[in-house]
Amino acid sequence: MPQFLRGFLWIQLYVLVSVAPLAFALLGETPPGRDFVTELSVALGFVGLSMLGLQFAITARFGTVAAPYGMDVVIRFHRLISLVAFIFVLAHPLLLFVTDPATIALLRFWDAPWRARFGLASLVALIALVVTSIHRTRLRLSYEVWKIAHGVLAVVIVATALVHVQLVGYYVSTVWKQLLWVAMSAALVGVLGWVRIVKPIRQLRRPWEVVRVEPERGEAWTIELRPVGHDGLTALPGQYAWLIVDGSPFSAEEHPFSLSSSTERDDGHVRFTVKALGDWSGRAGSIQPGTRAYVDGPYGVFSPDRNEAPGFVFVAGGVGITPFIGILETLAARGDRRPVTLVYAGPNLDELTGLERLESLQRQLELDLVVVLEDPPEGWDGEAGLPDADLLDRVAPERQRVRYQYFVCGPPPMLDAVEAALESLGVPMTQIQVERFELA
């Protein structure tokens, strides 16, 4: 089945499951004497709860679900649709307060009925989850602490909301409607079991071992792993994986990194290039050979193998160079001589991770390497500034723009600027592939 059709069907299934509780609630007998606004409130609550429950499946990294879009797109959808669900759920009590101001008394947790207590607990947990997710950096929450809190809050939100629905009793009074909620609860438990138990156990059976850790420019390190007792990954160039080093698959400390090695290696070894950014990555240089590691992947659609073209233009900023190193090494291993233009932007030469590897690859590929420095040294005769429309117009002739595939990876501001520049130059959106390092 073509990926675009599979993606369309997943979207239809998502919509169907989201509104299923509402459809079931409307069948059969309904409570008498309820006005439109009250019914709208209940409808929004049902749909919002269903959407929140679906977030567990969306973020469970099911390969078949993510394949048509890429995990980065799935995560962005998760963030946006969670805000929509939050608005639906928040509108549920607010509309009740409008139609019957006396219901505001239900906010007094200490003497409210249990159905209201569970509903309020769910709403408070949802607000906490949204605030900590949007303002994680401002609140100075480490990734590991945030991830644990995020998972716990998510379970509390859905579990207390389900209890609230059962205690209220409207629209779930019949046996078959109750079975629907039991099935939804069972599905939630099943997804949690997959993510927290089954998947880690499967990873334990496929360990990796650190072979070497090499320093790179720009306070980065390349970690090479070998598979222990298995054949390793079957990946496309440009994909990424979640990496755990010197920890357990049951822990929260895992991080996504692009593969920065050829996917054509016979020994099954993989390499990840990690830049010190103040979290776990800051300790990457101290990792010792022989350390046990675990890899969950590969994921992503940022690959020339999924976007065939007679040539490519790559635009990288900072650590966004890592997937391109892996892509170029794979093309070299295959003897692929299609022309590639790589625009590599950074503050200065010392920050250009992997520059020596790229220069050596020029001898094996039809590779035009264009280095762009924001702060060039004295006597620099290369490109300076940022990869804007003028620069891209010079390095990528107009005849290439409807034929070549453009791949862009780097800091979010650069991605937005380069996308806008390419669109202004007439590059079709279907020819632009973007990888955003915002998976957590």
Summary keywords:
440 residues; alpha/beta; Four Helix Bundle (Hemerythrin (Met), subunit A); Elongation Factor Tu (Ef-tu), domain 3; Rossmann fold; 3 domains; six-stranded antiparallel β-sheet; six-stranded parallel β-sheet; 12 strands; elongated
Write the layout of secondary structure elements.
Layout: H1 3-26, H2 36-58, H3 63-66, H4 71-99, H5 114-134, H6 143-168, H7 175-204, E1 208-216, E2 220-227, E3 240-245, E4 255-258, E5 270-275, E6 292-299, E7 312-317, H8 322-334, E8 340-346, H9 355-361, E9 367-373, E10 383-384, H10 389-395, E11 405-410, H11 412-424, E12 432-436
Parallel strand pairs: 7-8, 7-11, 8-9, 9-10, 11-12
Antiparallel strand pairs: 1-2, 1-6, 2-5, 3-4, 3-6
Question: How does this model look, in words?
Answer:
By secondary structure, the chain is of the alpha/beta class. The chain folds into three domains: 3-203, Four Helix Bundle (Hemerythrin (Met), subunit A); 208-299, Elongation Factor Tu (Ef-tu), domain 3 (Beta Barrel), CATH 2.40.30.10; 304-436, Rossmann fold, CATH 3.40.50.80. It is 45% helix and 17% strand. The strands form two sheets. Strands 4-3-6-1-2-5 form a six-stranded antiparallel β-sheet. A six-stranded parallel β-sheet has the order 10-9-8-7-11-12, with helices on both faces. Strand 8 (340-346), helix 9 and strand 9 form a beta-alpha-beta unit. Helix 5 runs antiparallel to helix 6. The longest helix has 30 residues, at 175-204. The protein starts with a helix and ends with a strand.
